[in-house]
Amino acid sequence: MTWTIARKEIVANLLSYKFFVVLLLMVLLVATSLFIMYRDYSGRMADYQLIRPDPGEPIAVVAPNPLSIFAKGLENAMTRSFEIGVVGIDVRAGQSSGNVVYAFFPAPDLLYVVRVVLSLVALLFGFDQISREREQGTLKLMLSGPVSRARVLLGKWLGNILSLAVPFLLVTLLGVAVLLLDPDVRFTAGQLGRLALILALALLYLAFFLSLGMLVSALTRRAATSVIVLLFVWALLVFVLPNLGTLVARQFVSVPSVRALSEKREQTWTREVLLGISKGENWAEHMRTISRENDRMEEDYRLRFERLVRLSRNINRLSPAASLLDAATEIAGTGIGEEIRLKGEVVRYKNAIIDAIIADQTAGKREVRYAAFAYRPRPLAEVFASGALFDLAWLAVFNILVFALAYAGFIRYDVR
Amino acid sequence: MTDPQPILKADGLSKRYEDGVLALDNLNLEVRPGEIYCLLGANGAGKTTTINLFLGFIPPTAGSCLINGIDIAKDPLEAKKYVSFVSENVMLYGNFTARQNLDFFARLGGRENLTKNDYALAMRRVSLQEKAFDQRVKNFSKGMRQKLGIAIAIVKDAPAVLLDEPTSGLDPKAAAEFLEIMAELRTEGKAVLMSTHDIFRAKEIGDRVGIMREGRLVMERTREELRHEDLNRIYIDYMESEKAVPAA
Fold first, then answer.
1. Which of A6, A220, A233, A267 lies 20 to 30 Å (CA to CA) from residue A373?
2. Is A188 on the interface with B (CB under 8 A)?
3. Nearest by CB to B57, which of A4, A145, A415?
4. Chain B residues inside the 8 Å CB shell of A12
5. Which residue from B96, B108, B162 is facing A145, i.e. has the nearest CB?
6. Which is more confident, B10 or B142?
7. Model pLDDT for residues A340-366, shown as the tens digit of each residue
8. Any long-range contacts for B200-205 (C-beta under 8 Å, 24+ apart)?
9. Is B219 helix (H, G, I), strand (E, B) or coil?
10. In the sheet that A88-90 helps form, which strands lie side by side, from edge to edge?
11. Is the CB of B57 inside 8 Å of chain A's CB atoms?
12. Over pLDDT 90: what percentage of chain A?
């Protein structure tokens, strides 16, 4: 009986004008997004070929991540070069400052398409599921048969999520197949697995909005009312709450700006150099002092920043859009957690290089070659343990909760 | 020989809405196999409320609705296996063909193994033209949609049929065809409960006719009793009387 209703929904969607408009929109958006992000990736790859260090240079650069085509996250910040010198790590001007959550919004990656546009499309599939059937009189006829309301709701949900998911997956996978024609875009098996996980997350997110549409439809008598209510809720969930959380968190945690950090670093350097010149002491000791003080400052910054991110994330989780964003970027290896880890690795690399510089200088070596920076992204298990699994489960909870509420609304729905 | 058990039975049925309006007041009514019961009454008399209570769309305030002996409020899914419904304005899925609509609602009614031929037979029975079988329903006239609504009831093959003002808005020819189908359903042994404003057709087709006023069944006559009476006059008398007396 559930499948009978699901099949009816699929056939009704296939026969509707709405479905073809949505399909066209999906093709256009996904194709445009993949093309723009592919060009972006290619540009970064070209830059990487130029800036990648020669053997022996103390520069930390990671290669662009092909999964950033789908979930850009903090890829720009992660693929910049970190030059190691006597004053520490050269943090370049123009890099992201303050709360990096803002940096998520502009990139028109697949994640953005899903988060903003396809969530609206999912609402379009759900907003009139109950009220339209009542308005056109078919709900009475449907419920005059021996079919429970739970089955009707489940059948409708199933039919509509399939109507949404199948074209989305087909269009996306077709896009991936086209990307693979370029020899510069290479996915490892692990990255393809991660892409599958990101798509699964996207479907979970879209399922939430479909259920939300059905919930509001089950609480309203007219589809027109449902549209207005849902537009308000959508704007709240997709735009207001994720930004509100970040703003609120900033009231409780203060984080110095990158500019202030840079100034402080310069001051330390100047002080130690002047001390070295005036007192004629061993310069190696001053280098260690500069490095130590910088590390302490970086550590303080890192702790504050992590606290800000944690608080922002927890508040933002009121919106499933934030959970999708966090989990998908972390799985892609472009999330905040990955960026923090990369920074930690760069600091460790810097300390090793400074030790090597001092040792080489002490030994009187003139031509020195330093070890190359090697970075391996976190394994998936670690990504899940650090919050992605929670976000995945949280999205599932959102789904179950909203569907249960839709059921509760439909049970009380006056079909007359 | 004893009368067969009623398929449809309202037992002390009352309904008071949340706004305090008493829409139905202690209704007692029975419809047996092979019987057509026509409920007459003005708008707001309680006819549609009775149908909605039989379909379990609203819960009764008191009393019970039994379909084939099953209380709709206690076991709605089981009770609905034994009843078909045709509304005043049969609305179907406009983008679906007549056959697709029939197939969907037949499956929902528990008839999952019907063939194309079964659907064609049902549509022929209600005099739907062959060329309409695979046409989209959005192009159908009201009469054609009503016929398809009855075809849906026919394929479900339930022992009871509920009809809520089914002839409203039909042209005389379509209404006459409709009555023929009702007569066939009676011959097949279906228990038919039909709410209507159409006094003349109620007298023509009804084995029993009840008049409702302000939620109460104020008159009930059999076909035999009505044979030599003017139902139109009786109806007007009951509508105009100051205080209606409930039917025994």
1. A267
2. no
3. A415
4. 93, 95-96
5. B108
6. B10
7. 899 888 888 888 888 887 777 777 766
8. B200/B231, B200/B232, B201/B167, B201/B175, B202/B38, B202/B40, B202/B231, B203/B231, B204/B179, B205/B36, B205/B38, B205/B179
9. strand
10. A59-60, A82-85, A88-90
11. yes
12. 42
Contact A412/B at CB under 8 A: no
Query: What structural domains and CATH numbers belong to chain B?
Result: 8-91+159-240 (3.40.50.300)
For B75, the token pair is 């076991």
Q: Is B227 exposed, middle or buried (0-12, 13-18, 19+ CB in 10 A)?
A: exposed
Is B139 in contact with B165 (CB distance < 8 Å)?
no
Task: Indicate the number of domains in chain A.
Answer: 1
pTM of the model: 0.86
Query: Is A416 within a domain?
Result: no
Determine the average pLDDT of the residues in B210-235: 84
Of A11, A140, A142, which is closest to B108 when you measure between CB atoms? A142
- DSSP three-state, residue A391: helix
Of A99-113, A366-380, B152-166, B176-190, the one with minimum mean pLDDT is: A99-113
The pair phi, psi for residue B163, each rounded to 5°, is: -130, 125
Q: What is the mean pLDDT of residues A205-233?
A: 92
CB contact under 8 A, A140 and B85: yes
ipTM rounded to 2 decimals:
0.88
Whether chain B has a CB inside 8 Å of the CB on A25: the answer is: no
The CA dihedral of A233, A238, A239, A244, to the nearest 10 degrees, is: 90
Domain that holds residue A240: 2-84+94-411
Tell me, yes or no, whether A215 lies in a domain. yes
Smallest Cβ–Cβ distance between A145 and the set B92, B109, B162 belongs to: B109
For residue A94, what pLDDT is reported?
31
Tell if the CB–CB gap between A144 and B84 is shorter than 8 Å.
yes
Q: Report the DSSP pairing between strands B35-41 and B8-16.
A: unpaired
Distance from CA of B105 to the nearest CA of A (A): 7
Q: Say yes or no for a CB contact (<8 Å) between A141 and B105.
A: yes
pLDDT of residue B246: 52
Query: Which residue spans within A53-106 are E strands per DSSP?
Result: 59-60, 82-85, 88-90
Q: Are B40 and B194 a contacting pair, CB within 8 Å? A: no
- Give the CA angle between residues A124, A128, A129 to the nearest 5°: 105
B33: nearest Cα among B203, B183, B188, B155: B188
